[in-house]
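Protocol step 4 of 5: obtain the predicted structure for the target chain.
Materials: sequence only (see below). No template structures provided, no constraints applied. The aim of this step is simply to have a reference model before the mutagenesis design in step 5. Sequence pasted as it appears in the construct record:
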Amino acid sequence: MLDAVIRWSLTNRYLVLVLAFGVLGIGLAALNSLNVDAFPDTTPVQVQINTVAPALVPEEVELQVTRPVELVMGGMPGLEAMRSVSQFGISQVIVTFRDGTNIYFARQLINERLASVELPPGFDRPEMGPVSTGLGEVFHYVLLSKDGDLAAAKTYHDWTIKPEMRTVPGTAEVNSWGGLKKQYQVRLDPNKLLKYDLSFDQVVAAVPANNLNVGGGSVQQAGDTVLVHGVGRTSTIEQIENIVITSVNG
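Step 4 output (structure tokens):
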């Protein structure tokens, strides 16, 4: 039998080549449409709740932040387990639901419960993590600047590339690492503070107080509505330098 197959193949070698390329084409077409998942996502239906607690040690984070969040989360429909991690300056509570629970239904339940969490003054409100798992696909890319300006590269990424990446279907979150964030720094001279009898807190309070745009309602004039807009937001270094900290005798 094997001799007959070999003899036929040698006699019809061109037909054999055509069949071989045909099978190869079908295989490549099937490969492009084949869903390959080397690491299937076995993560249960869970939601992360993160709370920033600046300067608190883990014991205080557990008592003042983590514990109140856990008490509020108890008793939800489909709740299966709950675990938490209290670290320096941050609290994380992971709520796990039964398999088959709609993740968006679970997040809606948690969002309603978070509104009733009572935290000490000065704490940020708890926030839910993105709709993703630890085994979700991760795509890494690097953005380089031709002139080496790390601040310009990060600004371009955060305001141009990142919003476009969020529109890609299946994208849960886009995180930025590295680069320099554009900022204006006010560096104080202690000698001048003493000279003009000013304190550090006065300067800290004056900068944000003089960096704000506010609305002033509207004015009706000859049938037209004119919007009143108070412009006080700084946009240049010169404007920051002209901020008045205090006045003495006018």
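Step 4 remarks: The longest strand covers residues 79-87. The chain has a mean pLDDT of 86.
Proceed to step 5.
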